[in-house]
Write a structure and sequence with these properties.
- By secondary structure, this protein is mainly beta.
- 0% of the residues lie in helices and 40% in strands.
- The chain has no helices and 22 strands.
- The strands form six sheets. Strands 1-2-14-4-10-11-12 form a seven-stranded antiparallel beta sheet, with no helix packed on it. Strands 3, 5, 6, 7, 8, 9 and 13 form a seven-stranded antiparallel beta sheet that branches. Strands 15-18 form a two-stranded antiparallel sheet.
Length: 295
């Protein structure tokens, strides 16, 4: 589903899911859809705000396989009831398998002491035949937990996450695995901010199509071949200055930084590009990414 300004809680865009019942919305799959897995455990958080009223339809699905949508491939399905009045979630239910499958405990009714409708949901899902876990938080408060059989099919792996609540705004999404020493658990209410280039960095070695190099990459919606920087010289570097992020509310810490490169090769010559960032006087380069004919 496309980025939508009206769905944003933070920054310029959020995502508004399809308004029709049962419509597929956002599918994040291992290998092809942004996930590194497969996993047996995963943490996920996002802000949700319903724009449509419905009764116990899928909000979040954990799937064993990314290639088949046949009934039985869902490990865990989290369903919600919503009310378009005040944009509220009013009920949540968790099933093993598909929506309406084996209930994993009682439903949850939400209270909104402040009268607002959006909630920041966080999920911990562990898939196992006997010691699996489902834990759900809403605005930092645990509202559901289950321990037992969470495996429904296949290899007992998490290979896809699906966000499917129709007519629901989704923003500020994070996904953590359980590996490493950071970002390996619940991260709490997260906000994602975008920083665009505001000036020339330490290097300006590419050839700009017009103006200064940073002026060709400072748009949120990339204009691809309208304005760009290019080079045919191996080893040349282009870097850019960025303004400090000024979040509201103020940040306590930064959980992660991700930067995007939008690039293609100019002809049939085999080409690759590396991301680079500069801290103090040191350059840090990423792995080479092979470029194709399209962005």
């Amino acid at each position: 589903f496309p980025p939508t300004a009206a769905a944003a809680r933070t920054g310029t865009y959020g995502m508004r899911t399809d308004g029709s019942a049962g419509a597929l919305t956002l599918d994040m799959s291992c290998g092809v859809g942004g996930l590194n897995g497969p996993y047996t455990s995963i943490y996920c958080g996002f802000f949700g705000k319903p724009q449509t009223s419905f009764s116990l339809e899928e909000l979040f699905i954990v799937r064993d396989t990314r290639t088949s949508w046949a009934v039985g491939n869902n490990h865990i399905t989290v369903s919600v009831t919503t009310s378009v009045a005040n944009n509220k979630f009013t009920e949540l239910a968790v099933y093993k398998g598909d929506n309406g499958g084996i209930p994993l405990g009682s439903t949850v009714t939400f209270n909104y002491p402040n009268g607002y409708g959006g909630l920041y949901f966080e999920f911990y899902i562990n898939i196992h035949d006997t010691t699996g876990v489902v834990t759900i938080r809403a605005d930092g408060v645990q509202v559901f937990t289950f321990t037992g059989d969470t495996r429904n099919a296949g290899a007992g792996e998490i290979n896809a996450l699906v966000f499917q609540a129709r007519g629901t705004d989704v923003d500020d999404l994070y996904i953590n695995d359980v590996n490493g020493s950071v970002n390996n658990g619940f991260s709490g209410d997260q906000r994602i901010y975008v920083a665009m280039a505001t000036g020339v960095g330490n290097y300006a070695q590419f050839d700009p199509s017009a103006g200064a190099n940073w002026e060709n990459v400072d748009e949120i919606d990339q204009d691809v071949d309208v304005t760009y920087n290019d080079t045919s010289v191996v080893g040349e570097i282009d870097t850019f200055a960025f303004a400090d992020v000024a979040p509201s509310p103020a940040l306590n810490s930064v959980s992660a930084v991700q930067w995007r490169v939008v690039a293609r090769r100019a002809d049939s010559t085999a080409s690759s590009i590396k991301r680079v960032y500069r801290r103090s006087s040191t350059d840090y380069k990423g792995a080479a990414a092979v470029l194709g004919d399209t962005y």
